[in-house]
Each structure stands twice: as C-alpha cells, then as structure tokens.
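I am going through a labmate's work and have reached the protein record below. What it holds is a sequence and that sequence's fold in token form. Please read both lines and tell me whether the tokens look consistent with the sequence. Do not assume that whoever made the record got everything right. Thanks in advance; the entry in question is below.
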Amino acid sequence: MTSSQADSLTDHVAAFIRKTRYDDIPASVVACSKKAILDTLGVALAGAKSEGSEIIQRHVVELGCGSGGGAAIFGTTARAPARFAALANGCAMHADDYDDTFHPSRVHPSAPVVAALFADAERDDRSGRDVLTAFNVGVEVTCKVSQAIDNEHYQRGYHATGTCGVFGAAAAVCNLRAVPLEATRFALGIAGSSSSGLRENFGTMVKPLHTGRAAENGWVAASLAASGFTAAPTILEGERGFFLAGGGRYDEKIIRNRMGAPWTFDSPGVGIKPFPSGALTHPAMSKMRDLVIEHNITPDQVARVGIKTNRLLPENLTYHRPVTGLQGKFSMEFCLASILVLRRAGLAEFTDEVAARADIQDAIAKFDYTTYSDDEVKAGGYTRLTSFIDIHLKSGKTISARVDEAKGSAAIPMNEDDVAEKFRECAAFAGWPATRSEKIVEAVYGIEKLAKISALTDLLVRVS
C-alpha cells in the first residue's frame, strides 16, 4: 500500500501541520487541550522528583547545560538548551506513568508534545495562543499516526509513546515556527528515523526515557529540517517507512482527510489518569476503592480476591509479585492491594518502600488474576478494559462487581475542576507553593490570552 509522493500520506500530514491555525480549532477541542496541558504540567512537577528524572537532570548538568539561559527544566532551578530541556521534562512527565492516554493506540500523546513545544516556545517567548495551536497539532499527529499503524506494531513490542510521540513533537515545533511545507515533510522524515521505544522496558526507568527522547528527537528533527536538512519525503507510507517496517500494515483512512476531522480531543477523546499507574488498571482500581469504602472492608476480613480482565491486559501488567514501585505501576495485584490495605494508590504509594511492606505483600498474595475469552467479550459486550472483581470474605460473603470505565476516561471525562485538583495534588507532592500553583491553573485555563509563554513557564521553575 503505497502512494505517489505528490499525494502521499506524509505530505498530507505535513500540509495539516503547516496550515493549521488557532481559528481552525473548535472551542470544544480548545477546552479539552487546556485540561491536557494543565495535567501534563502537574505530572511534570511531581515526576521531576523521581529517581530517574533526577539522574537525567544531573546528566544534563554534567553536559554543561544546566545553568544560565535556555528553557526551564520544570520543577527545578535549572535551565538548559531546548533539546535537553525537552529531554528532561519529557522524562519527568512520564516518570510516574500519570500522564494522559489515547486508548485506541495506548499512546501517551501530550507529554512528548508539551516537552518539546514549551522548550522551543521559550526561545522567542511565543504567545499562549501560538503554543495552544501547536499543541493541538502535535497531539493530533501523534494520535492519528499511532492509530493508523497496525496493532501489530504494539504486539511486536514497540511503545507508541516513543515511536509515535516523536512525530507529534516534531509537528508541534514545526507549526510553532511556521516551517515551510517541504521542510515540515523532511522533519517528519528525520523523526521517523529517530522513532524508538520497546515495551520490554516497562516497569523500569527507561519507559519515561522513551517520552523524553521522543520530545528531544522531535525537537531536533524540526530544527534540522528548518535549517535545510533533508530526509525521505514518504517516511510514513514508504516501502521501508514507519508503517510497514513497524507494523507491516496501516489504515490510510485514519489519516487521509481525517486530520482534525474530527479532532482527536473531540472523538474518540483522550483520557486523563486518576491514578499514577498503567491505565489498564484504572477501572478495577476505581471500583475496588468504591467497594472497600462502601463495605468498610479491611485486609484481615479478606480470604481471596478474584480479578478477571481481558486477556490482552496481562501483556502489559506483567508484574504479578512486584518488589519495586516502578514494577507496581504495571501490576494489577499491587494496585488493588494498595487500595485494600491503604485505601489509596497515589504518588506516595508507588515506591519501593511501600512495595516491600509485609502487609502489602501479604495482600498481593491473596489476589487471583485470570482473564476472560474473546467469545465472552463478544457475548457480554465488554470494553477492552472491562474488569470483574470478586472479594471473598472469611465470613463466607462474596462482594462482586463489574466495571467498564474509570473516571478520567474519554467515556467519563474529568471536568476542569477535577483536573485542577489533580494538578494541585501533583504540585503539593512536589512541594510547590500553593499560591504559585493557583497562578499556574489560572494561566493555563487562560493560556490563549498570554502574550508571552514565560508568564506560565516562570511559575514552573523552582526558586533557589
């Protein structure tokens, strides 16, 4: 499935990047994108405290890039050249696995785009309206590209946030700079050869690095192309291009005449996470919390807990007896055990210390995780995330429930107040002053009115 260069999918995407302006974006999409930006900045502040993020920050400083001018490394006192600020901020935004998710392709779309875009926007102190436009373009490219490539891409072990996020990051920077059409096409070509990220590294520091590298490489791709660097003009659909090399097949209809029609934020929507763990765990976690609180269940009352999900979920939720906080993010058993024992599973719970607690490990051992068949999916009308919980009490009573979606999903979206509260929790976890946090919320929800983006980014730098 190939097209001539004159009518190529790559050219189609490049034209969308080049032509889109603020007035092309519906008000509903603008509203959703503001929530996504605020959410991403919140998880960046919280994630900057993680061990992996601090290593990346030291690495940037050791390169001689951590002081003086440049773009802000959020949550710190440091600044760096745009590419390295994009790297550090991208890693922080995904460090806690708390950033938003586009479920059709399991990509985290906002973080690579925000990290690259904000770093570049600080160079010339661009307006909030320009940044908001470019953000929407970048997220749209990431989501459509990730949805168009065959699911085989994911099954082969690729992490779409790294492999597809680089296209969105490059797209956002190209839109912000109004890069000419041919150079934008080349930026996508450069980004395609910088696409990377393997799911084998889930549950380690490398997963957030995928996001940081996507942001950095996207920024570099746009910058090189704007300077005259050339690349293949058909990187998406070429015989040796991204789609066929990475997935073997692709669906042209997802992209052709569908960029911004509809915008992904409108349909099918992007989910904002209620918990700092793999999104596949969230419906069960939400329901488990409801059941524990409603019935006042304590761990000593529980004999066994059955959890049953789609057979595809354990492909990511691979840690059934986790011993670290990072592993716990990809463990259904840990996530539910944390709620059973502590009645919460927030930023403070996904740590090595909590994972090692005897009461947590005892609770984990009570869970029986099984899956249902594809036939059951069809017969029951299940979503991909439908989960069943059976809490067997020692008294002989069983408390059972089915859940299809969690709050924060596209089906049950968070409103502006919900996202603002999540931001405040992330900022408080980072030790951010409450007065500055409120100013950030106000700035993001009025971002299109900002004459200079520094009015926002200066609030994200720690005062030494």
Summary: Residues 279-403 form a domain with the 60s Ribosomal Protein L30; Chain: A; fold (CATH 3.30.1330.120). The mean pLDDT is 96. The chain is about 50% helix and 5% strand. The two ends are 56 Å apart (CA to CA).
